Amino acid sequence: MDPLANANPPVRLRRDSLADMPATVRTPNYLPTDLKPGIVHIGLGNFHRAHQAWYIHQLMQQGQALDWAIIGAGVRSYDAEMRERLLAQDCLTTLIELDPKGISAEIVGAMIDYLPIEEGNATLIRQMADPSIRIVSLTVTEGGYFLDANTGAFNADHEDIRYDAAHPDQPRTAFGAIVAALRQRKKEGLKPFTTLSCDNLQGNGVILRNCIVGLARMSDPNLATWIDQYGAFPNSMVDCIVPATTEQVVSQCHGLGIDDRVPVSHENFRQWVIEDNFCAGRPPLEQVGVILTHDVHSYETMKLRILNGGHQLLANVGEILNVPTISRCMQDSDILAFFAKVQAEEILPHVAAVPGAKPSEYLDLVEKRFANTAIHDTTRRVAFDGSSRHPGFLLPSLRDAVASGPAPSGLALAEAFWCRMCAGRREDGSEIAPNDPHWDALQHIALASRDDPKLWIEQDQYYGEIGRDTRFGQDFSFWLTKIWRHGSRAAIADYVAQTSTSE
What is the mean pLDDT of residues 324-332? Predict the structure, then answer.
């Protein structure tokens, strides 16, 4: 039977309506009265609800981790709308799994509250200082870590960071709130909590430690030393494709018999790898498939370079050619040929195997996932924030390729596609709406680079030393000129026709 052909009106999602859900919908077998808080999560978007919250929910379904319930939090004004919607449905979330064989729904109840969004973050600080909280986790995007664009180090000169250092009891940022809560715990003789990044950054735990300790040092050096000595910041790698929620997703949810105002759709794949380094205990996550290890780096490198880097290979040229989704990009013979050649010749050679998976095997899995037509993952979503994603996902492969031999022509072409996309107009003449926190500056340089291509790679905040490499500069200039004069498909055809550098 078609799960979308539900004849009854959808049931409004609330705790007291779970028993009325269709029999095909999986629901929590635990009660909210069974749960006690153990985790505060900051930055509660779709990814967290489809990933971390799902793993905790699975443990709760087994009668475990009942004292690790999640309290949601945010520090930006736009989080208030999500808070209002989730509280209206008792913090429940419908997860819609988009399997090519058919969709299914599960209601996740691991979250029990969502803190108010307020200036100064007093409630958030007070909650994190509570001894019941043993993990504070974050998804604040790759660009939210206040890193110096040239060095990758903590940027103590950022306006928000300087404000938090000067006003440690009324901070603006999530990091300032964490420091304030840790200060309170130290004062009360409590242990620190583990602070866990769930963002796509290589060495995200190390980066997070540097941010928290660095900010604390600006106002209280003794506190910084205490956090550094007794706190824990595990590195982690997260992996699940979670598209933005659209009206189509809400309609799918209704078709499954559930009236959820903020459902989440996701692919039929998840992976979570965490460094087993916690200072205040942890749930038994290994019992629900999480990999606990002391070597996260290899998993991170494989995923960030092949999957996240692969997303950028597809999305930028997809936007230029007005191909609306990632799965449609995989069906486009030109885009697929470009993707496959760059991966095989310029990315995979610089990625090491992990237990149970060679880089080529992981690429095969990624190709199947990207080609999943049930996932309506837009090129626009994937192309968002290229100013963070290119330095994080493609430029490490570019640097390795330049250092190891012949110029990486395909990665140079990928950077040329990013530049061309930022010019703000597709090849069919339609407009590409602003899609980056630094869009105005990027568009200005992208347009100027049409006549002087090297202006783009002279953006030192993104390219640094690699932007001054002669071979890369020549290839980039050649491809950008080719794209403007003859179009993206002509550039791809020339690149695909090139003889492999390994032959």
Answer: 97
